[in-house]
Amino acid sequence: MSYKDPIIHIDEQLCTGCRRCAAVCPVDAIIGEPGHPQTIDAHRCVVCGQCVQICTAYAADNESTTASRAVKLQERGQLPNVREPLFAAYSSGDIQKVKAVLADPKRFKVVQCAPAIRVSLAEEFGLPFGTLTPGKMAAALRRLKFDRIYDTNFAADVTIMEEGSELIGRVMSGERLPMFTSCCPAWVKHAETAAPELLEHLSSCKSPMQMGGALFKTYGAELDGIAPSDIFSVAVMPCTCKKFECSREEMSVDGCREVDLVITTRELASLIKDQGIDFIHLPDEPFDSPLGKYSGAGSIFGVTGGVMEAAIRTGYELITHEQIPNLQLDFVRGEEGIRTAEVQIGDLELKVAVVAGLKYVDAVLAKVAEGTCPYHFIEVMACPEGCVSGGGQPKLLLETQRKIAYQARKSAVYRHDSHQKVRKSHENPDIIKLYKDFLGEPLGHTSHHLLHTKFVDRSLKEEMS
Ligand code: SF4
Ligand code: SF4
Q1: Active-site residue 242, yes or no?
Q2: For 125-184, what is each residue's pLDDT tens digit?
Q3: Catalytic position from the list 200, 250, 349, 441
Q4: Which of 123, 124, 162, 163 is catalytic?
Q5: Terminal Cα-to-Cα distance of the chain (whole angstroms)
Q6: Which residues of the chain are modeled with pLDDT < 70?
Q7: Catalytic site residue from 113, 183, 241, 383
Q8: Taking a C-beta distance cutoff of 8 angstroms, is the pair 217, 253 a contact?
Q9: C-alpha pair distances (Å), 184 with each of 28, 48, 188, 301, 381
Q10: Ligand 2: which residue has its CA nearest to atom 4?
Q11: CA 465, CA 441: separation in Å to the nearest integer?
Q12: What number does the ligand 2 atom closest to the CA of 40 have?
């Protein structure tokens, strides 16, 4: 599968030309005159889906003729029984394809869920903002007939092992600093398009989703005694750009796609409703082991500052060989904008920055380009408050509602972390076992082959992939 076509669209029959989408677009990719239908510059667009979140122009399910609504649902890749309005700005759907794969008994179906899904999925079933439902989510995925319920949070713990080791290496050598995180595909696409000369500053780590996909079809395949080519790997993400990321040419391992399809939180909710599953009354069920067991550090990847906090928890202990005095690092927590801090780790004064919202990153990139950027490590998330505010999350129509929801989802992420027995990636017993039995060591040969990548200069390309 490849996304040569744009993933984000504006339906010219429904667009009123209000340009609310243009106001939230971090890269000025929305083109048009007020009062007229808008178009998207696919080359600039980073597929973050913020325009999809903010657009309020819609056709209600009883507004158009049944025939045209059915056609639009089909074009959008949605299921025919979806009741919600059709909004002007939308993302391509993959739910029909996932439904077909789930009905195929010959495939071995694995699924992973990003950290931010478990704090927002319940909203689609009428529960309050930020209701935390990891157990019901695992149960629903099992009822949908996935063979293994794995977790992106596990892969987030792997990311910390790899990215943390990479950062320590770069700080010790003084090379290619500052180092930027590479978990957010919209940020990566922006760097590739707008600042290709700075790509060596990105961590070489694949995102947790892609690391998870690579491990499911190698380590997971070995554990289950299944050929990697028989595994179909689905990811449930809060992010529309993950659909683009999984289709990138380099995101394959030994000829197999790491992640075959990505669906959003809203698409998963739609599939659960389509199958008549009573989500609210499902029991809490566990994720499958070992690729579904995670630490609190893995779960905070869903919020701005989370990758940084998880990396510092592990980096501190790997460098000093002492326990970090406090696990709750308030100085990296916060909202949209830029936060900076200096962290004393043994003899090292680590200078860090957290960028929440892609529109804030260009000033940082300019400093890196002129050699005056003072930081060692910079986390960038394209969406305003990290993945909890992603373009694939449940849609929020009012600005006030949006703020309350983001706050509630963030609190739920931190609550989930605080309730985990293990809260540091390097102490996750299944991570320790993964390195002992399969990967060897962080940044070792197998890790490089499966978990690291090279980024692409997209400054001149006109197509999406
Ligand atoms: S896509 Fe939606 S938000 Fe953007 S101009 Fe059209 S109606 Fe307004
Ligand atoms: S998906 Fe993001 S980058 Fe693309 S047009 Fe919409 S807001 Fe802009």
Answers
A1: yes
A2: 999 999 999 999 999 999 999 999 999 999 999 999 999 999 999 999 999 999 999 999
A3: 250
A4: 163
A5: 11
A6: 1-4, 61-67, 461-465
A7: 183
A8: yes
A9: 19, 10, 6, 10, 6
A10: 45
A11: 32
A12: 5
Neighbours of 205 (CB within 10 A): 27
Distance, CA of 440 to CA of 266 (rounded, Å): 38
Q: What is each CA distance from 193 to 185, 198, 239, 388, 462, in whole angstroms? A: 12, 11, 19, 25, 10
- Is 342 among the catalytic positions? no
What is the C-alpha to C-alpha distance for residues 459 and 455, in angstroms, rounded to an integer? 12
Catalytic, out of 242, 243, 410, 424: 242
The answer to whether the CB of 8 is under 6 A from ligand 2 is yes
* In the block, residue with structure tokens 């970090």: 324
| Rounded distance between C-alpha atoms, residue 375 and residue 117, angstroms | 31
- Decide: 40 in ligand 2 pocket, CB within 6 A: yes
Q: What is the pLDDT of residues 412-448, one digit of tens each?
A: 999 999 999 999 999 999 999 999 999 999 999 999 9
Residues in the chain: 465
Q: Which atom of ligand 1 is nearest to the CA of 16?
A: 7
Cα–Cα distance measured from residue 86 to residue 301, given in angstroms and rounded to the nearest whole number? 31
Q: Is 463 marked active-site?
A: no
Burial class (CB in 10 A: 0-12, 13-18, 19+), 341: middle
pLDDT of residue 81: 87
**Residue 203 catalytic?**
yes
Q: Is 222 a catalytic residue?
A: no
Atom of ligand 1 nearest to the CA of 22: 4
* SS3 sequence of 111-147: EEECCCCCCCHHHHHCCCCCCCCHHHHHHHHHHCCCC
Cβ(45) – ligand 2 distance below 6 Å: yes
How far from the centroid of its chain's Cα atoms is residue 144's Cα? 22
Distance 415 CA to ligand 2 centre (A): 31
Tokens of 54: 């903010």
Paired strand residues for 354:
339, 379
The CA–CA distances, whole Å, from 137 to 130, 283, 327, 369, 392 equal 14, 10, 27, 44, 16
